Request: fold
Amino acid sequence: MGQAKKIMTRALLENKIIKKTSDILHNRIIVWIVIPFLLLVFWIFLSYRYIASKTGVTVLTYPSNANNYTSWKTTELLKGEKIKGQFIASDNHLGIVAVRFSTFSRINKDAVIFRIKNIKSKNWLYEHSYLVNQFQDNQYFTFGMPIFDNSFKETYQFEIESVRGKPKDAIALSRKEPVFVTKYKFPKKEILDKNILMKFIFMKTTESLLDNDFIASSTIYLLPFLFYFTAMIIFLGAHSYLKNNSLKRLFIYLPLYLILLCALIAVVLAKTIYPLMIIIVVVLWMSAIIRYRFKGRVTIIFGSACLLISPFLLLFSFLREAINITIWAYVFLVIATVQSLVELKLVKKR
Reply:
């Protein structure tokens, strides 16, 4: 009986050890593989959605410059005046010419006529008029056209003519490079061809990495992964190996610094602060509040700093950056208000 009891006790102990080991292993798989993988998938999916919505997954963009204009001016484009350009198509399936205009930070009432033709042709292949109140300052406006499938290495000319431009109510060609870009929309079947696929992926990746707005958005989308990964490293006590106390404190607050760094990148590079960016930053900032237990005044400091920087950016004509940082100021101050109200409620309960 005694021997049988010992065997049963040992079996139970072994089962407990196996179960505990299995739980630990299972938790480690979730913590270090499953969750990081899902966060990376989240980043890839949102980056893909950005490309799909902004430039098109099957569209390649090639930049041009002022040297491609045969007649151009960066002062106001007045009634009857024309901007003329010429370029050699970089690929097949030409479908868009996008030109960067200056609106002088105002809404203008002019209209322009866009025309395009092959240099070999006498007649214009496409012509259409556009109201300039749609134009954004120093941003591309896309002039679409029927797709020219066999456009590769063909030379095209285009004109942009003002219909009723007048002083202080007209647009101009932007001084910001690249002045215009050409876009080529590929059929999906053609992209999947093994001879084209790798080239297309390389060109699309290069194009995306040259897009500041994409870099800003993609950085924010990657932030949850970076925040989680650094938080887990800190949780494991990696900072304890650092001998310098200042470095230890710096490392402990690394997830917090990542949020602020990504928000700063968005201020500098993004065309605007998109709602999804705000949601991601708010969720992670609230997580940081819970993790570090800092008071509402800390959030107020960051919000107020953003608000104070904004007028200086306006002073030096950084309008887009000033708007972006004002949006972050509003976001942080709203969080601070909610946080302060919660803290006040908790104090009253005590």
Summary: The chain has a mean pLDDT of 85. The radius of gyration is 28 Å. The chain has two domains: 30-52+208-349, 60-187. Residues 30-52+208-349 form one domain.
